Structures are given as C-alpha cells and as structure tokens.
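User
New here, explain this?
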Amino acid sequence: MSNYNETSEEVLQAPISLKRESDTTAATTAVETTAASEEQVTYANILSIGTYIGLATMVTTFFLYVGKILEPVIPIEQLPHFWTMKAHDYMKEAHLPQGWGWLNLVSHGDFINFIGIAFLAGLTIVAYLRIIPILLKKKDTPYVVMAVVEIAILVLAASGILTAGGH
C-alpha cells in the first residue's frame, strides 16, 4: 500500500511538459516553406471579395425590405400566418413561383434579397471558371477535369435539372 501512495505522490508532483522543442521547430519550418499555389490564392481571393459583396448586397436588400422602400409580395404583417406552414403549402397559398421564378418578383422587397443569396451561391462557379486557365497553363489535367465536372454539377443543380432528395 505504501508503494502505491509514494508513486502517486511522485506522479502528481512531477512537472508535465506537453510541448517538445523539436515539435515547435518542425512546425515553424513547415509553415515557412509551404506556400499556396496560384490557383489556391486566386480561388480564395474570389471567394473573399465575393463574400463581402454578397453580404453587403444582403444587408442592403434587407433594409430595402424592412424599411418598406420596396413593396413586398407578402406584407410583413401577414408573415406569421405562413410561419407554421410547410414550404410547399406556403408557396401554394401565397401563389409564389418555384425555382428561378423568383426573378420575376425581384422588384419586390421580400424577393430582392434573393439576389445576394444567388450571388453567394454562384461564387464557387465563378472561382472555378477563373482557375481553369491557370490549371491548363500548368497542364494539371486531373484538376482541370475536376473543376469542369464541379462546374457542370453546380450549374445543373442550380438549373433544377439535377435534383436530389424529396424537395
């Protein structure tokens, strides 16, 4: 019994070191020698700038809506009536279009905010389109193919041709 207590006390009093010098040096060296490729930087810059533009658009169009600068299709006061409905029932009762039909209602306050959302959703396509010439210049065929396939899938999904699930 006495050996167990002595060992426990020694362990509790021993200094604990969670970091080794060699780990820190290796991590610092790896960070210093690793650089993002041209296509990674280009892709990231498009997403970064585009995100700010999209968010600014969403904030602006939100204020156009709540400030009643643009008349909504469904007045704000009537919204609680629709909150408990399933999306399909809401769209049917409110006589709202499906898919890209919202573009016909973009002059209304409650639909103009879709512009920012659609813009943000399309940023990935724009970024892929922009990096394809860089990848071609580098003769990086596998990544060119992946980028083209990704664009095709996103465009088909956005068009409504390619669907999944029960929606």
